[in-house]
Structures are given as structure tokens and as C-alpha cells.
Write a structure and sequence with these properties.
The protein is an alpha+beta fold. It is built from ten helices and 15 strands. It folds into two domains: 186 residues, no CATH class; 101 residues, no CATH class. It is 29% helix and 21% strand. The chain is globular and about 70 Å long. It binds zinc ion.
Length: 361
Amino acid sequence: MLISGAVVLAMQIAATGMPIGIGAASQDGEICVAMPTGALAPGMTVTLIQPRPRQSVLSATIGRPTPSCERLEQAMISGPYYLTQRPTSKLPGSDTLWVAFPGTLGTRELSSGVITVQLSPAYPNAQVRSCTSHEGLHLTVWAGTPLKSDRLWHEYYYLGYDVEPSCTDRDVRDGAMPKMNPKSIRSHLKPYSISSKRRTTVPHAFASALGPCDEYDQWRIEQALTALGQEDLDHLTCVYCGRPGQTWDHLENLVKAGRFNAYGHQIGNLVPSCRECNSEKGGQSFRAFVAADTRLTEVERAALIRRLENHLALAKPIEPGALDPDRQEILSKFLAVQVQILQLMEEADKYASLLRARSDG
Ligand SMILES: [Zn+2]
């Protein structure tokens, strides 16, 4: 395996000599861990800390080494890579990332929801952090409070798409440049498949097109947001965590299990959210997402769910089953077009594959 010495050094914690790596959840519920050479072996445990607010800890056992790990390779994180055994607890989501420490380390959850980790007697209260730069994440480990204590470790995780930058100088100083190695070309060396690339986006577009849509009405919107508990309408805050809002989250997703979900772009279905909460919520229902928020008390969670349900009540869902016969027929035609489009894409894939095969010979 090609591991350059510089990369291994970069992943090591300079101050304590402890190797630190990165864990990434995969689609099929496994966790892939990248760690400096020699730091892990099957049967060892790793302590995984999810660095974004609403931090969490997971302990996992290393199952086996693996030659490749697509998500980490695309992010330009070098191996060696290991797959953990399936954790017994449910994974937070397939896009979750962790800072990984070998062994079972003592951790403590502060009332703010921040996790501290005991790296060594010299660093009993280390903390992890992630922030965004233009096209990626900077993952860091600090001796104490991030940005206010010594930075012990740093790694750049390449995302490949634009994100709103949130990093400070202290996060990224000492010229953290995105690394690139020959292995990362692998994700490009595979034939493109129209049908597999569009298998979820086409149904999503069709379901979105069915979504009912409210007209812009400033008075109604302000009323709804005030009722939702927003105190300053010029500075909307995330309904889930209270930080400054950045995006509008659809309380009920437009698409559920590949199908139209009765709700659309309605004032009552849209709430201010920060980017982290919006992406963490993903395909979950807002009820499940809030119910899993350990930073809130039981009473606070129930109150928030009630408030969001009251907001959602402003949006009238469309139940496809309740349509009159004429519209039911139009809906059938509409859904038949979607099936045809998917079939046509598969046909196109077959032709493309024949053409590629010919040009190879
Ligand atoms: Zn939030």
C-alpha cells in the first residue's frame, strides 16, 4: 500500500504522539476508519467522536482491514482503512463523519452537548471540532476549548462541492492544503450509468412537481413565524438548535420512500434551520429528529414537536387517494411517464455500454 510518510505524520497528533484518524459511515451501515499505519488491528476498539454540534460518541470494534474506502478516498483521506464491526446502536446517518481515536477513551458530555475526551493524563479534556472551508471540512482536535486552546491535530476532508465557509484562521493555519494522491482517481475510473445516477433524482423531481405550493404572502409568513416562536424576524434562528438560520427546512419531505408525500412548498411546511440541522435531519421525520436530540429535556422536546406540528397544520396536504376520478386518471398518466423515463434511461445505458465496448476494441 502506498502511504507517504508525510501523510502519516500529518495524521498523527504531534503533541502526544497518539495516532488520530477519521471514520466515515457507509451506505450499508458500516464504518470505515482511516488511521496511520500500525495503529489499528482487528479486534481493537476505536472511540469515534462526531464533531458537529450535537456531538456524540460511538465505540466500535475493528473488524478487518479493507483495501479501499470510497468515501474517504474521494475526500482524499489516505489509508490504511479498516471496517468496523456493525455497531449495536443505530448509526446517526450515512453521511456521518467521526474523528477516530484508537482504544476506548474516557469521554464526558458537557451540558452544552460538547464531548470531551481523555487523550492522556496531559490532555484530559480534549475536544474535537469541524468547520467548513470553500470545498471541504477542517477536522481538528484541541487540548481544551476549540480555538482557545492548543490545536493538537488537523485534517482536511475534501467534499468537492461549495459550502458556506465557517473556519477561522486558527482552524486552518499552517497551510493546510488539500492532499491529492493517485488512488483518488479511482472514483472517476468507472463507466457512468444514466439510470443509476438518476434513479433517485427523477422520482424526486416528479414528486416535487406534484407538491402543492403556497403563494408568497408576507403577512401570513410573518404571522406563522411569530407563532413558531421566532423573536426577531430579521434574524431567523434554527428551530432545532437556536443558532442563526441559514436554510429553509421542509418539515415533511416532499418525497417519502420514493413517493410523493402529500406535502409541498407551503408556508406551514417550511421552517428556518441551520445547515447542519437541515442536513443531519435528512430524510428523517421532524418528530424522529427532535425526539433524538439529547441536548433538550423530555419536556422541551415535546414542546418543540407540538410547536412544529402546529406550524405544519397551516399546510394542507394533498392525499392522492382523495382525488376525484378525473384527477386520479391524470395522476396515473403522470406516474406512467415517470416509469417510462426510467425504462428509457436503462435502454440508453445499454446502448452506451455497447458503444464503449466498441471503442475499446
Ligand atoms: Zn440547527
